[in-house]
Model the fold of this input.
Amino acid sequence: MKTNRISLAQRVSLVSLLLLCALLLTLLPPVAQAQTLTPDGFADPAFRQIWTRADALVAAGSAGRSWVWGELPGSRRYERFDQAPGGVRLVQYVDKARMEINDPAGDRTSPWFVTGGLLVVEMIVGRLQVGATTFVNRAAAAIPVAGDPVGNPDAPTYAMLAPLAALDGGNRVPSRVGQRVSATFGPAGVGESPALARPETTIVRYEPVTGRNVPTVFQQFMEQRGPVLVNGRVVREQVVDPLFVFGYPITEPYWATVTVAGQPVPVLFQAFERRLLTYNPANPDPWKVEMGNVGQHYLRWRHGHTLHYARPVPAEPLTVRETTLTIPTYDLAPALRPTQPGDSIYPYDRLEPALVGPPQPREYRALVVENRFLTLTFLPELGGRLVQAVDRTTGRRIFYQNQVIKPSPFGQRGWWLGVGGLEWAVPTEEHGYLENLPWAMQVIREGDRVDVIATTTERQRGFEVLGTVTLRADESRFAVRLEARNPTTTAQPLQMWTNAILSPAGDNQVGPGMRFIVPTDELIVHATFDQALPAPRQRFPWPYQAGRDLRNPTNWTGYIGAFAPTPVPFIGAYDVEADYGAVVSHGEGTVGGKIFGFGPSVEPGLYTDDGSAYVEVWSGAQPTFWDDPLLAPGASRAIATTWQPVWQMGMPATATPEGSLGLERRDDGGLTVTLATPQRLANATVVVSLDDREVFRSAPVELRPDLPFVIELPPGSTGVVGVAAAGRFWQAREVP
Done:
């Protein structure tokens, strides 16, 4: 059933839009109609054709019914199915179901070339079907069949339906044709509420195959005739083949109290083999009868994932706007003290913490750059930083974003503003001197790219500093370049780093699922309060030390800052519980890599007021903070990196600017390979190898940033994994 509710004003706007779409539908030529109404992102033309027939007119608002499949195509996978070629079949999840192609060489004109899967049966029984007669047992789905996914305590779950379900020819009930439905079901079991019985719930069909009764509202919905789109033309015929779409009914219809948008609502529901139907008499037409979100529920049950969708094509590929952010800010003015020559930080200010004034709301100028997949926000007045990057597909934030601007006792000045985001750390070790000062900002738009350039002149050594962030249309990555120029006549020492302040789950916390990903077998201590680690400048094994997984800061006994001993191609921060994070690929000039986290013993009040937490990932022009190379007069130095959000891949195993590869061992013993590309790559054939032996080759498919490509290799798959696609290649070994 629908889980999103809209306001009256939104509904009026939606009605106006739908009326306009309906008018356009009558004016456009047939082929243009189909092109206009079909979203991109389908994994196979057969999936697109099935969706278009039933749901294109629903999207246009001219069908007078609810969704058959869902508004947009979602996650695509090659899932294990032992009888399919290569032992996998191509599937695509939508809100209401899963589309499957078992034999890509089969007859595409057959109505059963695409199948729907008995997803409801699997969730009720607790058996994943991975072959014609092969199953993997797991706990039945403790997921509400209707209403809100959480905070829905009175709703029945799929697992609760097991004693009521007619499976394998058993558990039948007699015909009740002509009776009205008054039975209820929930956590307390089966009950009766005669007040809920109404004419439209009168039983009109008895299904002899499963021994189940179907009420009027559901039978009419399954047999409805109406406008569908066939070969670009609107025709009126039966919308779906009930057996193909629904399968047989497997429970009786029951009333249940479910929570919708936080409010309890009486809803009639009935489970079928492939779908679940709901009837909410309080809904407006045509949304009284709806398909349950079986596709969403099954993906969460089987893979632990939220269903994400192909992002629609935006009206503009790139937008740039200026706005403001209001952030509570501690008053630094009374506490700042000018320095004198001879002070190591001269001419920058020191701070007397006892004189800092209380926080007050302050408005900051902000620049926002956006494409289909990313929203980037910059704060010129706070170091010209990229304060936030939002992955629009998932809605998650990549960077930590402090909800208060508060000085903390870190850095070479003796104080630092832990604002969050990506900061430019120049000209000395730690956080440099410039993160609290205003920078000049310039936006250059050329073709399919936008460059946001932050510039300042460093006052101690005279460097001209430029930090550039580049975003291209239709990409989920952004390029970062930090450059320093020496316009003086004297060689000057220069340290230059970008510091990314992260909370990988996007929730401003560092939880037990947090993992640093550094492709090295040892790190060098910069500073630590973890007594099990050696002294600064000494090396320690990575990622395990004496059985302790150091990738997770909650395993530390104190803060740790550590450098990679040699240049690494990428660093990642990933939360395995949220299955989300980000990776930075190191490019030209980037030889230093560093991680930092507090561990559980540091009081967050040092840098914030809300108990939030973060980790740091550093990329530098020099290997460590102990390296301070000179920059000659008139010379420049630059580092280049590329950032990409990653999700639903277990954990990234490797990354390049062209994409990331994740490897995850499944509970059936197989290996799942996930490829996330930051660009749309059309007609790409994905080839997977183990120890240089090809084990999988896909049909040509479009790789997309919003729908990572997933291949399930069979049980027993081990070795070095290689993935080739569209002239690109990734290679990694599974990390235990």
About this structure: The longest helix spans residues 8-27.
